[in-house]
Amino acid sequence: MKRIAVLTSGGDAPGMNAAIRAVVRTGISRGWEVYGVKLGYEGLISGKIFPMGARDVGGIIQRGGTVLGSARSLEFKTEEGQIKAIRNLNELGIDGLVVIGGNGSQTGSYALHQHGFPVVGIASTIDNDLYGSEITIGVDTALNISLEAIDRLKITASSHQRAFLIEVMGRGCGYLALMSALAGGAEMAVIPEVKITPDQIAERLRISYQKGKAHAIIVVAEGAEYNAEKLAAYFSEHRQRLGFDLRTTTLGHVQRGGSPSAFDRILASRLGAGATEALVRGESGVLTGLIKSEIVTTPLEVVVQNKKTVDPKLIELAEILD
Length: 322
Ligand code: F6P
Fold this sequence. Notes:
Blueprint: E1 3-8, H1 16-29, E2 33-37, H2 40-46, E3 49-52, H3 79-91, E4 97-101, H4 103-114, E5 119-123, H5 139-160, E6 162-168, H6 175-184, E7 188-190, H7 198-210, E8 216-221, H8 228-237, E9 245-250, H9 262-280, E10 286-291, E11 294-299, H10 300-305, H11 312-320
Parallel strand pairs: 1-2, 1-4, 4-5, 5-10, 6-8, 6-9, 7-8
Antiparallel strand pairs: 2-3, 10-11
Helix pairs in contact: 1-9, 2-3, 5-6, 6-11
The structure holds 6-O-phosphono-beta-D-fructofuranose.
6-O-phosphono-beta-D-fructofuranose binds near residues 72, 102 and 171.
């Protein structure tokens, strides 16, 4: 293999740039040519593929987002789109691809692999819901951003004896909400993995109030059955059940825009180099991730067929420490 390409796909995650940098520089150190693809799979289909040198990735390690741009491509989900993408890669003589992204993006990598094109994925999503890596690029930074918000909101909540619903990202997964609650010392986390009714939440808040707490912080995952909007609507009708006056803050995409933490920069650099080395070894159809502190590869077939679950011990711990 002599020429490889790299793309970022799906929701951007702080640390993606460090991964791009590592792929480009590891590839060059192996004597290969490295190409970048603009706008994820969309760019692969429309041919936005260009050569990258070591200097092109200078000064990007500290930047959030992705210098390559990203997209959620509907066309790439079709067989026709995938074939167009492979044709464009073949025309440029590119014989391997690194895909930096989360679940949807790695489903795309698996499709390319099934068409016979060599591809290696890198685990990157703030949701941390990707099987094959204990932690994914962007999670640590996103968590630190929610913590900063929680710490600030706690101050104003205490001044006013209020409860706050703080909604964090995480489409189908409560990892970010649970870890934010644990690290932020919140009264509770509402996550998709644990069924809970608004009345049960109200009961927990009432207990906090009776314990004499000056505030109550509830971290809500956007993917929970009762997200912040639904809970706020419910509690505006049943305010008397809470004890506290209630306010809501939704963090949303703020969590994706940060400068990557040291942890994310190092993880992304290791995964970027690891994915490139996997292509050198002739591996294809695998995801590069971190398991027990080691960079390892897991077949994409296994990755896309499995769902990473939140550790029940952490759920228990958050409840004990509230
Ligand atoms: O997958 C990462 C993520 O940030 C989720 O937490 C969130 O639900 C989703 O992306 C938002 O996607 P978009 O940027 O397309 O609005």
